[in-house]
Amino acid sequence: MPVKIRLQRHGKKGKPFYWVVAADVRAKRDGKYLEKLGTYNPNTNPATINLDIDGSVKWLQNGAQPTDTVRAILSYKGVMMKHHLMVGVRKGAMTEEQAEEKFKAWLEEKEQKIQAKKEGLTKAEAEARAKALEAEKEANAKRAAAALPEEEVTEEAAEETAEAATEEATAEAEAPAEEAPAEEEPSKKEE
Predict the structure, then answer these.
(1) What DSSP character marks residue 94?
(2) Nearest in space to 77 (alpha carbons), one of 57, 98, 97, 96
(3) pTM value?
(4) Is 80 exceeded by the pLDDT of residue 188?
(5) Edge-to-edge strands of the sheet including 35-41?
(6) Which residues pair with 50 in a beta bridge?
């Protein structure tokens, strides 16, 4: 029975979540499997991978073939490295203790790289937030500066309309006064 180590899809539409399983080649993608080896969540940055390293190595030693994506995941987590070291132990190139030391050193180095990437991502996110805040402050300042001249223009327009209204009022006040004496003159003529 040929066995593949492959991904079994779970999760919502648009939000995939995978199980890493050892399954018969003839089984459906999301169907029956022989053993669940771990999980893979590509929705996080960096992707979250939980894997049973020893179980995966056991399946690889028994002849299970990983798919391309799973091979990349196994390589990322060190399963392929450990499998390679175990082949060396079987051939007599090194002892199990030496293989374990090399594997632990590789894991520590990998963990440092992952932490550096996480720190870089958080730093980049903080810088992006700071830039966005500065851009927003500048935009608010421009809006405020644009609003002040409009207020000044409206104040000037209000002053102009007030001056025009007072001029009209004074003109109207003077006009009836002039008309009134003109009316009085004809009345004087009638007497």
Answers:
(1) S
(2) 57
(3) 0.64
(4) no
(5) 48-51, 35-41, 15-24, 3-12, 65-66
(6) 39
